[in-house]
Every structure is written in C-alpha cells, then in structure tokens.
Recover the amino acids of this structure.
C-alpha cells in the first residue's frame, strides 16, 4: 500500500487555477476583488473630508510620511519580517533607520519629536533604533535641562552623534518611581556624581535601546548629598565607548531577552558600580546642585514626570490609529471572506461575513471606538498643547497640570485598554487567518500589548485619575472645564428626573450622553458618600483606598471617562459644524459616537437601574437601537475604514490588502515559510524518521 | 566628556548582592521567599483532597505523568525555548518525542488517546510531533472505520510506523465543512479514488503535522461517484515517501509559516493533482462504497463529525488547566511582588500586590473560573463517556448526540473564550514582567489563542448551541436533563416572583443560581417570542437568524451556559457531599462558585431589571457581596492555586516558580538572551556605528 516518490514533483502555483481569476482579488494581477469593489461603490460621503478630520493638523505630515514610505521599498512593511528571528528583525530595523535617515522624515522628527502629532512609529513595521532616543531621551534633555545643557545635548542628539535611552524602571520598582534605588551620590572633592546599584533589585530593567544600542542613558536615580536623600532626579550617563561601543568600566549591561513583541528592540538591563559623571550631567531645570553641594528646587516637583506625561499624550492620541489598522484588516477580510450558504437569493453564493449580524457587532463598534478615540482626543490635546506653549514661553503657572494629568492618565488607560482588547477581538473575528502572522494582526497586537503597561500601568493610572475627582468632590472644589462641571453638583444629575425618565429615548445621541453622565454622577456620589461613612468609623485612608474602595475607583474612572469621551466627541463636532461640508458624513459620525455610547451602556448600566434612571425595558431598548444603528452603517463600513487612509505599504497583511486578495496572498506567504527551504525539517532525519522506520 | 572602555569590565552577578538573600526567594539556593512561605502557612484546608477533586479519575495518571516529567530533564520546560527560532523549537519538540517514547507516557496515550481524561499536551512545553497523529488521526481510524480497517491502521499508528494528520480545513472553508471542495472521485476501473484540488480555495490549509512531519493524512473530501456528489467523507491518503520522506507525485505540500503560537508545529497546506488511493482507504463505518461504486449509508450522518466532538470534549475538559497554569504564575507573583508604601503599619514595607483590592479582583475571580470550569465539566463529561461506551458496545441509539452536541459545543466556546480572556488579563496583572517571554505567560496565551478558533469557531459554536434551545422551546419539546428542565416552562421562572424578589439575598449561592436561571429564562422567552412575531410577518428564517437575531443567540447561549455551569458545579458538590471530608474546603469551593456567579451578573444583569427580578440596590448588593467573598478568600489564594498541583518542571516561568524567586531568575534569564552572546548586536557595526560616528 506504500507509495514511492518520483523526482518529478508537481508544484502547483496560483496560475494552475486560471478560472480563479474572475471572482477573486489578486495583488499580483492588481485586480480588485468584486466584493470589495461593490462595498466601495456604496460610499455616500466625502472620504477625503473624513481623512482630514482623522489626521487633523497632521494631515499634511501624514501625507508626506506616507509618500516617503510608499516611494521607498526599504521602508515598506515586509511580509518576510514575521518569519525573521530577533537578529534579523534588528538588522531590518537598522536598515530602516539608514534609509529613513536619507529622507525627510527624520528631519521632521529631529526638530521636536512631539510637535508633530504623529510619530513615525505608526507608519513603520516593528520598533526601530533611535525611537526612544528621539522621544524619551530627547524629552529629558529638552524639558528638564538648563538652557546650556539643552543646547549641548540636543546638538549631539539631533545630529545622531549619541543614542540615548531612558532608564527609570528597575527590577524592583516600576509603578512606584519614588522608591527607585539607584543612587547618584555627590562627591564634592571631584565635583562628580557616583552612580551605584546598591541592591539586586536596583538593576535597571526594561529601558528600550539600552540592551545593545544606546551609548548614553537618561538615568533616574536618587540624589544623595552628604548622606541626605533628596529623591529621584535625572542624570545623563555615558554607558558605552564611542569608538568600540563596548560598555564602560563599572557597567554591566545587556539585552533582557525575548518578549511578546518589541523583539526588534533591545530592551535592556544595567547595573552600575562606582560610575562617575560630571556634576553638570544632572538635569537641572527644576532642581539645582551647585559646586558646594547645595541643592535648590525651582517649580513644581511634578514636572520631573513631564517626560512620562508627554509620552502618555502621544499614547493617547495615537491609540485610534493602531486600532484603525486592525479594523482595516479585519474589515476588508469580512467583505471578501464568505462562509455558509445562508442567503435566500441564490443558494450557491455564500454570505459575506459582514452580512452576519454577529459579525457586524464585531466590526462596527470597533470603528465607533476608533472614531471616538480620534475625535475625543482633540479637546484634551488642545489643553495640553496650550499648556506646553505657555511653559515654553516661560510661564510658571503649573495649575493646569492637575486636570491635564487627570484626563491624560485616565484616557491613556481607558483608550489603550479598549484598543488592546478590541484588537484582540478583531483578530479572533478573522478565524484561523487571524492566527497567521502573515495576516499582520498578531504583530500589531503584540507590539501594542506593551501600551497597557508602560508609561503608567493602566490600573495605577485609573486610580490616579479617580483621585482628582474623589479629592475634589469631597472638598467641594469647583470644576471649571465644561466637561467636568457636572461634578459640581452630582445629585442634581440624577435626582428628580421623572420627566426625562418617561420620555427617555435612547435613539437620540443626547440621551445616551445624559445616561452616561448620570451613570458617572451617581456612582461618584455613592462611592464618596459610602467612603465618608466608613471614614467616620476611623478606618485609615490607606486602608480605605487600597482595601475597601479600590475596585470602585477603577469603575468610577471608566464611567467618567466614557462620559468625557462622548462629550468631547460631540464637542468636536459642534465646534466644527460650520466647516464640515458633507452632511452624510456628519450623520455617520453621530451614529458612530451613538454606537460607542450604547456599547458602553451594554457593558454596564446596572447602576442606572439602581438610581432609577433606567426602568424595565431599557435593556431591550439599548439592544434594539444598537441593532438599528449598526445595520444602518453596514453599507458604509468599508468606505469609513478606508478613510483612515492606511496604505498597503504600512500594514503588510495577507488578508487586508487593497485588492481584497486573500487566497492567493495567504498561499504565497505560506510558500515563503523558511521551513520550506528544505524538503525535510531540520532534525527530522535524526529524530523522527528512525521512529517511523521502526529503528528507534 | 566622552569616556573610553577598559578591558577589565565589571560583570555583576546575583552573588554580588549578599544582603539580598534574606528577604527574597532563590531557585539556585532553594530558598523560599518568606512572603510565599507566609501565604502557605495560612492554609486552612486539605490541599490533597482538592487536588484529587481537580483531577478526578485522572489523578493517578496525573501523578504518573508528573513524575515522569520531573524525573526526565529532557521533558522539563526549558527557559531557553522562548529564545529559540522555529527550527530550534521543532528540534526541541522532536527530542521530547524521542525521550517520551522511552517512557511510559506514550504507552498510556497510544492505547486510546481519549480514554485518559488528560492529554500530555498540558504537561509539555510547545506542541510536539505525533500529537495530532495520536489524537485526531487516531480518532478517524478508530471511530469511522470498519473493524478490518481499524485493526490495520491502528496497528501502524500505535507502533508509530506512520504519522498521520487531519486535513479538513481548506483555504476557502473552515467553519462550513459541508462546502469543502477537495474531491475523491471513484474510478471503477481501477477500484481507486482519485483525489483532486479543483480550485485554489480547495487547497487544504492549517492541518497540524501536515507541513513537514506527516506521511499520511486523514482527508476530508467530497465523495464523487458517477458524477454524483455524496458530500464529504474521510479517506486515508499517503502523502510522503516512507524512505525519503519526500512528498509523493501529484502532491504539493509545505509549511504555512509563522503563527502566534504553535510554532513548533508544522501546520501545513496541501494541493492534490490526480492522486490515487485504493477504494478501501475510505473510512467506511457509516458510509460504504462497494466494488461496483454502490453507496450505502449506515447510522446518523452526524457521526462523521464525531472526531471534532471528541476533540471539543478534550478542549472543554482541559480548559481549567491552561487557565490554572496562568493563575499559578500570576498568583505567586502577586504575593512576592510588592509595590508602593501604602501599609499603615510600617512605612518601610511596601504592600504585596495581592493585598490591593483591585489586584484581588484580578486573581480571585480567575480562580473561581478555574474551579467552575473544573467542577462543571464532570456532568457533561459523564454523559459523553456513557454515550461513547454505549456506541462501543454497538448501540445504535444516537439520541443523546443532540444534547451532547448542545452542551459540548456551547461549553467549548464559553470556556475557551473565558479562559483566553482571563489568561490575557492575568498576564497584564504582572505588569512588565508579564510581557517577558521568560515569565511563561506569553507562550501559554499564544498557544491557547488557537482554541477559540479551531474545532469550531466560538461564534459558530454558540449559535449551534443556541439552536438546540430555540428549536426545542419553539416546538414545545420536553427537556429531560435536570439542568435543562427549566426550559420546559420558561415564564414560570420569572413571572410571579414578588416574594422571592423582596427577600432576595445574593449572599447565598442558591439565590445567585436562581438569578442566573431567571436571566436565561427571560431572555430565551423574549427572543423566541420576538422571533415568532417577526416570522409571522413572513421574513425568511435565514434572514431572521442571520440578520435580526444572531447577536441575541450568542447572548442567549452564554446566559444559558453560565446558569448550566453554576448548576453543574453545585450538582457536583451535592453528589459528592458525603465523600468530601474537609468542611473548610467545601466552604471555599462554594464561595468560589458563588464568586463566579456574581461575576457573571456583574458582566450583564440588565435584563434582570427588565423583567423586574432585580430592583434598585441590587447592583450595589452584588458588588458588596463580591467584595466580601473575595476578601474572605484572600488568605487561601496561594493554597488553592498550589492545589492545582502544577510543578516547576511543567510551567517554565521566571516569576511563578515554587521558591517565589523573581529578581534573581528574571535577571538570570535576561543574561541568557541570545543577543548577549556578542558585545555588539549583529549589524550594529555596519548600520548604526557609522551614523553615531558621523560617517553616514
Ligand atoms: C515593552 C516595554 C518597554 C519599556 N520601556 C521602558 C523604558 O524605555 N524605560 C523604562 O524606564 N521602563 C520601561 N518599561 C517599563 C515600564 O515602564 C514598567 O513595566 C511599568 O512602569 C510598570 O511597572 P512594573 O512592570 O514594575 O509593574 P508593577 O508596578 O510591579 O505592577 C504590577 C501589577 O501591580 C499592580 N499595581 C501596582 N501598584 C498598584 C497599586 N498601588 N494599586 C493597585 N495595583 C497596583 C499593577 O496594576 C500591575 O497589575 C518598559 C516596559 C515594557 C513592557
Ligand atoms: C493553530 C491551528 C491549528 C489548526 N489545525 C487544524 C488541523 O489540524 N486540521 C484542520 O483541518 N484544520 C485545522 N485548523 C483550522 C481550523 O479548524 C479553522 O481555522 C476553524 O475551523 C475556523 O475556520 P476558518 O479559519 O476558516 O474561519 P471562518 O469559518 O472563515 O470564520 C471566520 C469568521 O467568520 C465568522 N463566521 C463564520 N460563519 C459564521 C456564521 N454562520 N455566522 C456568524 N459568523 C460566522 C466566525 O465567527 C469568524 O469570526 C487549525 C487552525 C489553527 C488556528
């Protein structure tokens, strides 16, 4: 019964199936899948207007980046990237840096990384060298230095003569920055700081670019003078030789090994033993140490964390785009993939995935999330940018910091959490294809996964955000921001609402906004009241916060932020209503914000029943309204996600390309698997064949 | 300001920090972290009794497997595995097969893979060769063959003379098995079937072990006789030469490339061109083709899918263990990791993560899920095993198939979805450490991720499960299973409940069970009634199911399954109440089931307000009860998860080992990073150094 192989093996290619051409897309033949074409033809709004809204003031930059990338093959996403090992991925990333150094891109970034709303990270595959150097290291030497220091370090940095990293986290401490253990001890004799890692847990651990690439680090260490501990400050420390790139004496550093994502990035560890740096390498804008070891503070100490704040803003404003890339892939797949003959019309044609209601519920609320995360960020980003501008002009008004910190830390957590979880759901929505690296979804998600943790763990961020409300409301603080004025009189939001209640009509976006506000107001009021009652029983504040009401704080923040996000999205539309030309577009955006709000209510509205705002029937009403809105937007799905304006060169996906080519591309990528380079898998002859031949 | 390197570099090891020893765990010194020790000392129940409950009738096998693994270093989880490329991971997997072939393990599995409740997969790192051969291929030749065929193929298989795979999915069709395109055309002249892939989308795609390893496949193809299409059947096809292991003529096969996980597994594609097999290679138990090409059916055609059913049962019964491994890692980490000085007692000691309420909400409900998924599976597994036994004895009663399919497909989806999502949350709960491959969590999750898709995509499974209820209830079918009798009179479950309502006390598990039943009953009733109303308006059934009520079907299934799971867990405890000795243990189990039920209600209870079962105040009551129960179980957390009895040799985690050693192990693993083998990263000299030196 056994057969023997002949040497003339049949290898069938896509061309072996000529009849395939008609109904399917093909990247190689540049033929668009008719199913995708059909979707595009349904477009009833101005796509360019939407793209301009999405990118806002960065629209021109976006177009510039995109052109540079599209024109330069080295910068294209590379499908082979997914099958590379870490070494190869790193070399790939280095080549990208080389190539992009020759274009305009780095110029834009070099000047001032965070001036441009979008960083290059969202446009390129993997994580490239200099990314941390130009972002976090740059922010340290820009924001925390004296003018002289700033000129000195920025000159080196912008000319790429040094590569810096940002070393804050240690083995023992991540979230609790105040407890970091690395020391910088002032040595008056030599006018130097001596850097030490006094314990195993004080080893710096995680900094990107530290493992192999950086030759300098912005180091977060305890300032010690005459045996006194003045808490953490930033110091610039050279860590590797400029010629040989070997680590300097007293330094023990390396890569930390493989991770879920960021594998082209050399996150590293470093341990110091009596490493000396000049006193002037301390970043002295807000805290100065003079030749005599006298320490002087200037400004709000929280400004030390302004680097993290800056990065959080970037995380917050870019959350929509990572999610948008995932929606683009899963969305396109959902209209070219068909499964099951459930159409009434013609038994032979299977149904497009997106024509299943359950599938619409996977894709369209994700689009709603992209839209809200995009529109809502404008309000807080404007406040932040104005504040930065003020600071740069020399203002010493640090008051706005509080509300900025409240919203930015909260939204950082809320958006990244939502984006991450939705990206994962979108991957699942593609069935087996989503499990394939070539689909592009795995790497998008794996890289993004870090964002729920770094720059402030989401749980910690939500608590910090909650505290601004709890402290303020408890102390009867008057909130001035429009979005926050509801906090000034919480009970008014939910008491005496019988009339509104009766006529409550969730088919209007305003009613959903009301419901979200009431949900937040009632819960805040309740939490604070309960807390006050218990506090009277003399429980300590630490116990109360960490052991009794911590979970409520997290819920509280998310309720508040959901309201804020919908409010802020509406606010954006209202502010721009005159400049928006396309009425269909406006209506789609309203529908999407509406869907976002309703999805929030389906996640959790039980508290609204508790306060009497919702009555029997509301659950059904929410579900019905959602179904209607989702159904209404179904025909515009592809047109909306294609307005994110993400090119095939950016997303490298075998199932999400502009031609709607899935079968051919998936198979092509499969054939390229490194394992197919040899007929037999490595080791097979030694370990398995003998078993099959009964020799083992 | 630039410094030069000296050749005497300082490399600090863990031994450089002797003072570290006291407060920390150490794998190398076999010293248990005092924080972990403290947790263990709190244990107030019989851990072995719990372990025996968890493993049930597999307890002895479990102990046997564990011993074999612990005794054999080649079978240990290997921390270097995470830093291997695909080739190396495959070779590692082959060595595991070699080593395990010399032990008792494979003997147990060989005999009849699914007899033992636990497969070896949960005990070994990665996916090893022969796994599919011994599971799916084995099930085909065991369940779908005539006696002669069975003897022939099982002989070859159990002696490992062939390695088989299971080729069902094609590029074009996964969930819709009935639409597969590969053909097996009967050629009367030669008494053979001719296998062909008539289209590009008919290429088989995904089968594990197909890419490189298998020399045979169980092939799912359309049976064509005299131009008539008789639908899909299974055929055994040789695909590679026995001597050279090269693919046979007419066959084009290979690996499909990198994936999220399963990278040591060679999932493959295959395309056939006129490949001939003897007629007798068709699996003929339920469908026979004779020498003349006459086709004859015997038994229920759904039995063709019994292989998938068998695997679904395995997926369902093993879900708890994958989740359990993740809880073990995150749980141990949560008591040895401290962050922030928020303790009242002594300002110098930071708080254990698990002493934060929000962290308890991350860990303890996950334990509850493990417990419910473990206890609840017993009921349905018993029904399934009894049915299989009957079939083996020659029974032709196929009636139980319906309810088995209903519960198994539903629970497969419900459990894998919950486990997958919770595993991901647990990983996040470890902060940065969870992003490190060495923590073990990434690979656990990435391997598990496939389970929401394969053997029945979860969305499709939940719909199929719902249909059993919708069809049955619509037709006034009488349900006989205890767990399902509530379906016989739905309105009775939620009408006239004023008395219960007033005294409703969610601090009792029974009330939570009631609430879950009412939630399910009301929603089923409502969905069916609404559906009937619409159907009267002459909407087609396909439209109704797929475009109007599909999302409801999914909600409906999950509601029903949550009730069933809590019911079935209680049922287990009730049935075993006399044999359970430890009363504390019983009480902990009840509390955990209770937590599971309450978490379900926090996920979604709005419909309970709609039907009047819940009133204002219930939301608060649920939250309060949850807080109390979670707080009560806090001291037992580590003792419960350690009763899962998972050894350090099984879970390869730098943060979840039995010594509570995190700092030392994390740093050791980091130092082992392949990138640290050379001082400079590959490519750095060519691509980056010139930039830093201003030469580029
Ligand atoms: C890809 C990646 C890149 C990184 N890059 C850098 C870098 O360039 N430079 C750098 O310095 N660092 C970097 N980091 C480190 C990162 O900043 C830390 O991981 C982050 O700050 C979280 O700290 P941790 O990992 O120590 O978690 P922990 O602080 O130990 O938190 C662990 C868990 O405890 C919980 N927890 C902690 N405190 C509380 C509390 N008070 N209440 C309730 N729950 C609590 C958290 O929610 C979390 O679930 C990077 C991390 C990653 C993953
Ligand atoms: C790691 C791995 C190993 C595998 N091993 C094997 C193997 O050994 N042998 C083998 O034959 N196959 C194997 N498979 C394939 C697996 O069985 C399929 O991926 C699975 O059946 C799903 O099919 P699909 O990928 O074609 O998804 P599709 O069926 O295309 O589904 C895609 C999406 O559409 C949705 N959808 C589909 N139909 C409907 C509907 N009617 N209503 C609503 N939504 C719908 C789904 O929910 C999903 O979101 C493997 C897959 C993986 C990931």
């Amino acid at each position: 019964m056994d057969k023997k192989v002949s040497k003339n093996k049949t290898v069938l290619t896509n061309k072996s199936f000529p009849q395939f051409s008609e109904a399917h897309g093909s990247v190689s033949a540049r033929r668009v899948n008719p199913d995708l074409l059909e979707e595009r033809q349904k477009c009833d709004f101005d796509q360019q207007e939407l793209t301009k809204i999405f990118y806002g003031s960065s629209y021109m930059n976006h177009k510039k980046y995109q052109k540079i990338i599209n024109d330069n093959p080295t910068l294209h996403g590379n499908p082979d990237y997914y099958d590379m090992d870490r070494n190869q991925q790193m070399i790939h990333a280095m080549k990208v840096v080389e190539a992009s150094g020759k274009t305009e891109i780095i110029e834009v970034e070099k000047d001032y990384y965070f001036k441009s709303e979008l960083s290059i990270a969202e446009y390129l595959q993997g994580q490239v060298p200099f990314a941390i150097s130009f972002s976090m290291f740059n922010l340290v030497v820009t924001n925390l230095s004296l003018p002289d220091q700033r000129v000195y370090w920025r000159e080196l940095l912008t000319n790429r003569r040094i590569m810096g990293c940002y070393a804050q986290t240690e083995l023992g401490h991540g979230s609790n920055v105040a407890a970091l253990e690395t020391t910088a001890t002032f040595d008056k004799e030599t006018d130097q700081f001596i850097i030490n890692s006094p314990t195993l847990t004080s080893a710096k651990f995680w900094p990107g670019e530290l493992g192999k690439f950086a030759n300098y680090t912005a180091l977060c260490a305890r300032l010690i003078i005459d045996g006194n501990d003045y808490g953490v400050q930033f110091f610039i420390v050279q860590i590797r030789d400029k010629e040989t790139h070997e680590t300097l004496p007293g330094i023990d550093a390396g890569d930390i090994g493989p991770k879920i994502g960021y594998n082209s990035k050399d996150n590293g560890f470093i341990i110091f033993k009596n490493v000396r740096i000049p006193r002037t390498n301390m970043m002295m804008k807000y805290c100065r140490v003079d030749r005599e070891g006298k320490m002087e503070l200037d400004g709000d100490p929280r400004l030390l964390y302004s680097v993290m704040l800056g990065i959080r803003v970037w995380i917050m404003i870019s959350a929509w785009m990572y999610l948008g890339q995932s929606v683009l892939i899963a969305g396109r797949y959902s209209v070219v993939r068909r499964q099951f003959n459930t159409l009434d019309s013609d038994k032979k044609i299977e149904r497009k995935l997106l024509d299943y209601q359950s599938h619409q519920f996977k894709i369209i609320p994700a689009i709603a999330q992209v839209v809200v995360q995009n529109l809502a960020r404008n309000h807080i980003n404007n406040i932040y940018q104005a504040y930065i501008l003020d600071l740069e002009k020399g203002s010493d008004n640090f008051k706005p910091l509080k509300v900025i910190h409240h919203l930015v830390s909260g939204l950082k957590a809320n958006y990244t959490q939502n984006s991450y979880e939705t990206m994962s759901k979108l991957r699942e929505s593609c069935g087996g294809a989503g499990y394939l690296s070539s689909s592009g979804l795995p790497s998008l998600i794996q890289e993004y996964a870090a964002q729920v943790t770094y720059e402030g763990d989401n749980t910690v961020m939500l608590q910090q955000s909650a505290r601004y409300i709890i402290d303020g409301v408890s102390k009867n603080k008057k909130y001035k921001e429009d979005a926050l004025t509801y906090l000034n009189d919480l009970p008014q939001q939910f008491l005496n609402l019988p009339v509104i209640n009766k006529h409550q009509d969730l088919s209007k976006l305003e009613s959903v906004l009301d419901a979200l506000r009431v949900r937040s107001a009632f819960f805040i009021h309740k939490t604070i009241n309960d807390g006050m009652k218990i506090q009277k029983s003399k429980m300590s504040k630490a116990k109360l916060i960490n052991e009794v009401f911590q979970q409520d704080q997290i819920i509280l923040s998310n309720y508040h932020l959901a309201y804020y996000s919908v409010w802020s999205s509406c606010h954006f539309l209202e502010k721009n209503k005159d400049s928006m030309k396309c009425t269909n577009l406006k209506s789609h955006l309203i529908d999407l914000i509406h869907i976002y709000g309703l999805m929030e209510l389906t996640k959790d509205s039980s508290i609204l029943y508790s306060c009497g705002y919702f009555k029997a029937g509301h659950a059904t009403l929410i579900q019905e309204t959602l179904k209607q809105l989702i159904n209404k937007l179904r025909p515009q799905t592809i047109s909306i996600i294609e307005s994110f304006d993400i090119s095939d060169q950016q997303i490298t996906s075998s199932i999400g390309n502009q031609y709607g080519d899935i079968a051919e591309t998936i198979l092509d990528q499969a054939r390229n698997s490194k394992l197919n380079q040899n007929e037999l898998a490595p080791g097979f002859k030694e370990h398995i064949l003998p078993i099959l031949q009964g020799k083992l």
About this structure: The first helix of chain A runs from residue 34 to 41. Residues A 337, 339-340, 353, 356, 358-359, 429, 431-433, 435; B 132, 166-169, 174-175, 206-208, 262, 267, 450, 453-454, 457, 459-460 surround flavin-adenine dinucleotide (ligand 2) (CB under 6 Å). Residues 106-119, 498-503 of chain A have pLDDT under 50 and may be disordered. Residues 308-642 of chain A form a domain with the Butyryl-CoA Dehydrogenase, subunit A; domain 3 fold (CATH 1.20.140.10).
